[in-house]
Amino acid sequence: MSMSKEDLIRIIKDTAVIFGITLVAGLGLGFVYELTKEPIATQEAQAQADACAEVFKEINEAGVLDTVEELTFNPIEVNPAISEQLKNEDYNVAYVDSVYEAKKADGSLYGYVIGVTSTSGYGGNISFYMGVTLDSTLKGVSILSISETPGLGMNAEKVLVPQFRNRKLEEYKVVKTGAVSSDEIDAITSATITSNAVTNGVNTGARYFTILNEGGNE
What we know:
The chain is an alpha+beta fold. The protein has helices spanning 5-54, 80-88, 156-159, 192-213, and strands at 58-59, 65-66, 72-76, 94-103, 109-118, 126-133, 137-145, 167-168, 173-175, 184-186. The protein has 2 domains: 1-54; 71-213, no CATH class. It is 39% helix and 25% strand. The protein has a 6-stranded antiparallel β-sheet, with helices on both faces. It has a two-stranded antiparallel ribbon with strand order 1-2. A two-stranded parallel ribbon has the order 9-10. It is elongated and about 90 Å long. The protein starts with a helix and ends in a 5-residue tail after the last helix.
């Protein structure tokens, strides 16, 4: 059955209309993307800087975390040789995925922000930043993403994070009976897996820092 001239004209018109709508929509999306790209990038950069700054805050007299050193953060490449050395040393349940130099206002190096992902959480990966000064002081830890059991592992922010603030950098271990030495971390009640996952991640980041700070694998 042959197509009539009227049918052909209708098909051409419909195709043209669809093409026009698609073109206008595409141009509109492109315009919106260009319009919002810079503000989104600015917001993301600010959020990243805020997350980095969080791990260097200290508790003030009012018991509130406060900024005591104005810092800027410069991302540097994760050293693959150090990462390989960590694997060889059996740091296999977490890995370093980002590193930032923390610099003071005069440009001098204050320490590093080390981004770590622990792969041994009860509900999946746990990602966090940890801030370490050049004198090997762990200033703090800030959890970026976690999906542990509500009321148990999800208490990591409340129970574990405060224990990693402003203490000597060393190899930590989880205990269930109450921490009595500087290298012990109190486990979250009924969430030992989460406690070990975060602590092992901190140990991985600490070891990475030690090698980096000693100039290893340059």
